[in-house]
């Protein structure tokens, strides 16, 4: 399951930010990805809520600094 | 010939597989197939995760496919950013390439007021003004229970007046179409059930502002109200409102509902950009009625007001509504013609009758061939035709063969057909003229004329049998709107395809050099209304035909000759020695290409400096006339 979530997050991020999936990793962050601004951050959250069927809390949104954080958070949500 | 069709409809691919397939098609240069794959993917999954992919791939296809581009500015009081990829993906699938500019958060008033704002320098064709009640009327939304009757009244006047001023000011600064959201009412009013019985409850107060908005919109050109409460109600207010997103990101709409807002906007953008269907071609068996008339017989098909035949009666009701809106109906089915037409003429459950259909193809040819013929018979492009068929195989076939045609996607369950048809944005219209209301009848009469032509001998006998009368009059205030509309909409029999707004035409009407005339045609089948326009400018002994156009439903009946004859006579009386005219070829006006040559004009020598590509033709008025056809009566007021 872990791999599925990771792939899903990377694929969604690639679609939302408009960059090739190969250029993204779990370390990618707003500092390393062009176009990852506050608006795209919200778009990423909404897309992930839809594709993973989870609801992400406002407090968690602030904690998500890298794609690795995002994967970690969704994995946690899914395991509950 | 009947083309072989596959046994069943295409099996849907998994989203991941669809993406790979799309990228393969784009890489292979198969752009039309790639577009179909993207449209299918979007039908299957239209959320934020797919929207980014759809938009990025359509951007790659931009150069290869014909898109209508449109600039949209969105002014808003709340967070709406996530709707933009959904809007652009929906638009791309509908053939529209949207350039979107989003105004800053809750500064719509300043943007409209300031002449040099980002709004106006963007030069939008469409502006959407989306304000939430919580922002536009916070007192009515949040503290309604604290307000006195006088305070409620003052708030209603304040907010209504504010919007009226904004819209009036906007109209002086921009010609763009403006779509304004009406204000949302709360799911549960401040005073609970009491609200409905109060003299001026919360809901009624907000609705009074909306009524004022609607009134301003009626009185202002190209301003339309989006009925926000109706949109929310359609999808359920408890599903629509998202308190959590409102408090965390000032986004009042739940993410899964954003697609519905995007689609609602498209219902306005389609008619604004002209990406609409002028006609719909429908299948018969299991689409217009339940069952197969060739097997079940006329008494065996299902068509009634109860649950057995209600699904199809509902479809007919929607089609009749479209007919009243000026959309032309046609039949495209695989049936024996006699059986099919008997059911349409005689079945007691039919709401549609033979006289509602302008073109009929009931045969065993493949449907793409029939649709091509229907388009030719109605004199409209394939891109102006929609296709309705219960059979997914036929739909897929038409999508592949004729990608220009709008294929209406239907659910498997017939009870859902009518709603799916109503849901399509290509039948939306933003205004309805008398001409529009009469259009379906005009075309059906045209079909009867064509049938008459087949039964009469020579072409001249046919012209005589039509008992045509024309009335040629200068454009005046009552005919101005129709005249401008003709320049906007006529593509085929249009020599120069120059578009004029009402304001521009009114300006020319005041000039003594210009002469603008309309032509109305009446024949034994009915009154066709105003169907043509000419605009001439006379200067230094030369009358130039700036514009000459005729609606396609009167072409080929020598009406154009009658009109030109009167134009030549009018020019001679205005003191002109020569009549000149240009033919500017467009992708659609080939039917007008031989017009001047066939009326004795001579082509001006090349080397004549032309501001636009095209041909200049001239006619010497001193020694020649253009004969008025003897079978047409020229009615003078």
Note down, in words, how this protein is organized.
- The complex is a heterodimer of chains A (80) and B (637).
- Chain A is globular.
- In chain A, α1 (2-17) crosses α2 and α1 crosses α4.
- Helices cover 62% and strands 0% of the residues of chain A.
- Chain A has a single domain, classed as Non-ribosomal Peptide Synthetase Peptidyl Carrier Protein, Chain A (Orthogonal Bundle), CATH 1.10.1200.
- Chain A is mainly alpha-helical and 80 residues long.
- The longest helix of chain A has 16 residues, at 2-17.
- Chain B is of the alpha/beta class and 637 residues long.
- Chain B has four domains: 13-65; 66-273, SGNH hydrolase (Rossmann fold, 3-Layer(aba) Sandwich); 279-427, Rossmann fold (3-Layer(aba) Sandwich), CATH 3.40.50; 456-634, Gcn5-related N-acetyltransferase (GNAT) (Aminopeptidase).
- In chain B, the strands form three sheets. An eight-stranded mixed beta sheet of chain B has the order 16-17-15-14-13-12-11-18, with helices on both faces. Chain B has a five-stranded parallel beta sheet with strand order 2-1-3-4-5.
- In chain B, β7, α17 and β8 (357-362) form a beta-alpha-beta unit.
- The longest helix of chain B is centred in the N-terminal third of the chain and has 25 residues, at 149-173.
């Amino acid at each position: 399951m872990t791999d599925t979530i990771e792939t899903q997050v990377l694929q969604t991020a690639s679609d939302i930010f408009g960059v090739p999936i190969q250029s993204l990793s779990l370390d990618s962050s707003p500092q390393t990805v062009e176009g990852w601004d506050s608006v795209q951050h919200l778009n990423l959250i909404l897309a992930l809520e839809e594709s993973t069927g989870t609801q992400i809390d406002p407090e968690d949104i602030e904690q998500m600094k890298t794609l690795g954080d995002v994967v970690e958070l969704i994995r946690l949500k899914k395991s509950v | 010939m009947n083309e072989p069709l596959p046994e069943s409809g295409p099996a849907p691919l998994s989203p991941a597989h669809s993406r790979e397939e799309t990228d393969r098609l784009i890489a292979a240069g198969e752009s039309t197939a790639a577009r179909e794959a993207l449209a299918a993917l979007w039908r299957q999954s239209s959320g934020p995760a797919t929207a980014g992919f759809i938009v990025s791939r359509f951007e790659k296809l931009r150069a290869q496919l014909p898109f209508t581009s449109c600039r949209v500015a969105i002014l808003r009081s709340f967070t709406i950013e996530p709707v933009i990829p959904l809007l652009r993906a929906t638009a791309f699938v509908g053939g529209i390439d949207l350039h979107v500019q989003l105004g800053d958060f809750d500064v719509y008033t300043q943007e409209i007021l300031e002449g040099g704002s980002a709004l106006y320098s963007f030069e939008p064709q469409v502006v959407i003004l989306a304000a939430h009640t919580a922002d536009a009327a916070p007192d009515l939304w949040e503290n309604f229970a604290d307000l006195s009757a006088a305070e409620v009244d003052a708030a209603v006047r304040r907010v209504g007046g504010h919007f009226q001023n904004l819209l009036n000011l906007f109209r002086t600064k921009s010609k763009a179409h403006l779509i304004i959201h009406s204000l949302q009412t709360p799911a549960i009013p401040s005073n609970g059930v009491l609200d409905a019985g109060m003299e001026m409850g919360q809901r009624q107060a907000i609705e009074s502002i909306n009524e004022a908005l609607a009134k301003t919109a009626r009185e202002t050109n190209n301003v339309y109200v989006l009925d926000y409460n109706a949109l929310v109600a359609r999808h359920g207010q408890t599903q629509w409102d998202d308190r959590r997103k409102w408090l965390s990101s000032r986004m009042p709409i739940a993410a899964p509902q954003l697609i519905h807002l995007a689609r609602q906007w498209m219902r306005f953008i389609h008619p604004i950009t002209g990406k609409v269907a002028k006609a719909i071609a429908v299948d018969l068996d299991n689409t217009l009625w339940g069952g197969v008339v060739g097997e079940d017989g006329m008494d065996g098909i299902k068509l009634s007001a109860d649950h057995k035949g209600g699904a199809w009666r509902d479809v007919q009701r929607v089609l009749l509504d479209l007919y009243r809106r000026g959309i032309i109906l046609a039949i495209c089915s695989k049936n024996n013609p006699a059986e099919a037409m008997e059911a349409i003429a005689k079945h007691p459950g039919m709401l549609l009758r033979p006289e509602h259909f302008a073109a009929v193809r009931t045969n065993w040819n493949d449907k793409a061939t029939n649709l091509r013929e229907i388009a030719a018979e109605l004199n409209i492009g394939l891109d102006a035709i929609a296709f309705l068929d219960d059979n997914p195989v036929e739909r897929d076939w038409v999508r592949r063969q004729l990608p220009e045609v709008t294929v209406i996607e239907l659910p498997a369950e017939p009870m859902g057909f009518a709603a799916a048809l109503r849901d399509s944005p290509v039948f939306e219209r933003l205004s309805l003229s008398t001409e529009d209301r009469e259009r379906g009848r005009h075309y059906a009469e045209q079909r009867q004329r064509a049938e008459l032509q087949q039964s009469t001998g020579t072409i001249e006998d046919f012209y005589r049998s039509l008992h045509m009368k024309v009335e040629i009059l200068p454009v005046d205030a009552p005919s101005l709107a129709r005249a401008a509309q003709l320049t906007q909409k006529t593509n085929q029999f249009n020599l120069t395809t120059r578009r004029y707004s009402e304001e521009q035409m009114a300006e020319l009407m005041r000039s003594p050099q210009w002469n603008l005339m309309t032509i109305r045609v009446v024949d034994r089948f009915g009154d066709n209304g105003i169907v043509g326009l000419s605009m001439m400018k006379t200067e230094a002994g030369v009358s130039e035909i700036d514009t000459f156009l005729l609606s396609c439903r009167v072409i080929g009946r020598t009406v154009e000759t009658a009109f030109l004859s009167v134009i030549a006579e009018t020019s001679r009386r205005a003191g002109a020695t020569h009549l000149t005219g240009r033919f500017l070829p467009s992708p659609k006006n080939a039917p007008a290409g031989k017009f001047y040559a066939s009326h004795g004009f001579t082509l001006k020598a090349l080397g004549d400096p032309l501001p636009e590509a095209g041909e200049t033709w001239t006619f010497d008025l001193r020694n020649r006339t253009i004969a008025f056809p003897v079978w047409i009566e020229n009615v003078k007021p």
